[in-house]
Amino acid sequence: MGDIEPGTLVVRHAEPPDHTALTGTDPLAAAGDRARRASIRRWCEQGRALLAEDARGPVGYAVLEYIFFEQGFLTLLTVAPAARRQGVATRLLTAVEAACTTPKLFTSTNVSNQPMQQLLLRAGWQPAGLVHGLDDGDPELFYLCPPANLSRSSTLRTFPDTVIGKESRS
User: Fold this and answer.
1) What is the enclosing helix (H) or strand (E) of 29?
2) pLDDT at position 155, please?
3) Distances (CA, A) of 10 to 26, 50, 101, 151, 153
4) pTM for the full model?
5) Residue 61 pairs with which residues in a beta bridge?
């Protein structure tokens, strides 16, 4: 896969046929996890997945659902191993913030997932709680998106076919 050329990364809503390509960006799905592959297909069919792609194809995706007390919830954000540390996750996170239609947006990650925690903190997300018992020995940290990130992104919501990701965090 290699480096992503500047200016070539776009984020868009995934379509049902995209599910096959997205499995290649997800380490669990690529390793043959049937449940993850089924979830990717469902998320694409339901319009819940946003995918990041460059000229060579998909390099990552994020899933936005409304399953957490009827608020937005970033269920999953993953980037292909060869495309990591190139801004893909930041662009996906910004796109999820732009796409969220509720006043609050949450996510969670394991205590062991330091890269995701760093991404969220850099973007201004605030810790919102800790839950033990979901994964043995690895508590789940919950985060809340700052309202300013949602309101800054609100103009993008009215243009669902627009390529998401050209906005800045300034």
Assistant:
1) helix 27-30
2) 44
3) 18, 10, 21, 21, 16
4) 0.85
5) 51, 78
